[in-house]
Amino acid sequence: MAFRMTEQSYLVLLALAQQPRHGYGVAQAVKDLTDGAVRLGAGTLYGILDRIVAEGYAEASGEQVVDGRLRRYYRLTDAGGDALAAETTRLQALARRAHQVLRARPAGQLGFTGRTVASAV
Amino acid sequence: MPDDASTPANPRFTRSAALWLRAYPRRWRAARAAEMTEVLADLAEPGASRLGLRDAVDVIRNGWATRWREHPPARPWLAFRLTDRRLPAQYDAWLWDDLTGGLYPFRKTWPVLFFAAVVGIDNGPYPGVVALMVWVLLGFAVRGATRRAALARYFPRNPDPSLAAVLGPSGFRRVPRARIAARPVLRATALVGLTAAGAMLSAGRFAAPGDHGSAYDVLGRTLTLPLSQYGFPTALMVTLSVAALMLTVPVAAVLLVGLSRRAAGRPAQPHRTLLGGGRTAHQVTAGLVAWNLLVALLIATNTAFDFTVGVPAVALGALLGPAALVGWLVVRRTEHDGGAPLALSDVAHLVGRRRRRPLEVDQLVAVWTWPDPYALPAAGAD
């Protein structure tokens, strides 16, 4: 099945781009990256990890037992880094076009400004 | 919650998570359930003793999505299920789960279920129910052989390199030999057999006369059962039961004489796991006893219920129940000496042709294991 870059997969890849993380670490990083707007459940998180590992975007990089808890770490691969960069470029281009569209409209018609869109993207 | 500063999940939470994680395929659970349980515990409220509803729904949804993602497409899957046609190699992992799953023998013996459905449509529910029971019994009876044959067929021990590339590294692991424990199984057989015979006989005594008549078509000939005025072949059943008692109890007693003496110096069995003495076995026994009583109640109170179910139940119960009771008493007495508990295979050995030879010590058995699909890269790769 072809890999589909959803917002959640993008955020997980972004979390792994900072440093190798274990499952809970990824969930926390995604929460921080989105100011608490996206909270990944364990099922969703492992569904995404399964797919990005199968796609070769991430790999298991080691495991530790901390305070009696098993921690398996995942890290981004080069292919994952490339996919992340490509998606970021696409989102940047989309945001640029969105700004252009919004600037072209009469002010106040939509009730929000370009600044709000920029922070959402 | 601070990162990595948590305590191990409490056992109740772990059990609750394990229950919900059954939504995932077996192989996935084997590789990742422990890891995911810890993440679930981290994400849960501090001190939680069970998975919250939101997390449970998330686990089930994604577990089934994982199953769906790995499932073969409909056409090859149907060809495999109905005609044993090989699946493409990319589904080997799914196939492994399917073959090692607890219900595989029942999936394998599907034609009986098909027969049940066809017969049930034409003749009302009763023959269908009997065929369904045959299917369940058949599934249990053939489960070991079916699974071994299928594993040997689809997963040769020395797979060719292309298969090994899909499966990854695999190998043998040595585990204790699993045997069925004698005492709990004999006790359960005695309980189930005796309650079946007793309940059916007494229910037959009080059964209301039915409209079914006593004639049965057997292979084109009409067979007439000698029914009592209550619509139940009580005389036949009592005769059968007494005959069974007279046959099996003396035979069991003769066979078991000397078992305690011969088992006296039995060896310890450090490499053995005994099955059948746990809570599940007790629950199954209680369920079967309750089922016997329920069927007897139906026979006694419901003229529409076909009482022929009682005939094999009484005959089988009267054959097995008392013999198992004698066996259970003898084994219980034998185990009072504090030696290793007996397996059914030990009892068979001690009453069989080789009874004068000493019991053998079980060895660890090699089990072929398949790889963790999330195996870590080699050491030093970090």
Automatic annotation (TrEMBL), chain A:
InterPro entries named in the record: Metal_resp_DNA-bind_regulator, Tscrpt_reg_PadR_N, WH-like_DNA-bd_sf, WH_DNA-bd_sf
Domain Transcription regulator PadR N-terminal: 12-85
UniProt cross-references to Gene3D superfamilies, sorted A to Z: Winged helix-like DNA-binding domain superfamily/Winged helix DNA-binding domain
Pfam families to which the protein is assigned, alphabetical: PadR
UniProt name for this protein: PadR family transcriptional regulator
Originating species: Pengzhenrongella frigida
UniProtKB/TrEMBL annotation, chain B:
Superkingdom: Bacteria
Transmembrane segments: 126-145, 185-208, 235-259, 280-301, 307-331
Keywords: Membrane, Transmembrane, Transmembrane helix
Protein's name according to its UniProt entry: Uncharacterized protein
Source organism per UniProt: Pengzhenrongella frigida
